[in-house]
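Table 4 source record.
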Amino acid sequence: MARYRIVPERSKIWAEGRSSLHPIKVETTGLEGYLEANVVDGHVEFLQPPKANVELESERLKTGNGLYDRELERRLEVRKYPRVRGTVRSVTTTDSGSTYHVQGNLTLAGRSHAVEGEVTARIVDGATIAFEGEQVIDMRDFGLEPPKILMLRVYPDVKVRGLVVAQLEN
């Protein structure tokens, strides 16, 4: 198995929550981690169980709105839990050969919860693989109650989309 390092400046997370007034959006780079896989006949193959880990500094989750950002920082307890972590438990290939069903754990604000969803993979070049997927998470699964800020109500479901670009380590 080859080891691929996630390229922080090319990998991104987008998150969109909803409030009673308008959407609340986060966009950031800075994902770190690794995965072990092989590329065979243009398809990505994983060990079973797979070895993959993705992390992000909690303080990178910013909306650009000071009021929202302070509330997000407080609720995520970024000083106590400085990193969001994702680990992969299983990966199965779907019929297309470029779409995978991934199961893993997401740790946010010190609490882990099982997550799963579909990701697509594409071979960027001989040494680079890109994975992309989207999932809706419920913040209450992580012990986070949706905030109420003044007259604004925030809903618990957050749509998270990720692009992970990984390069073969030498």
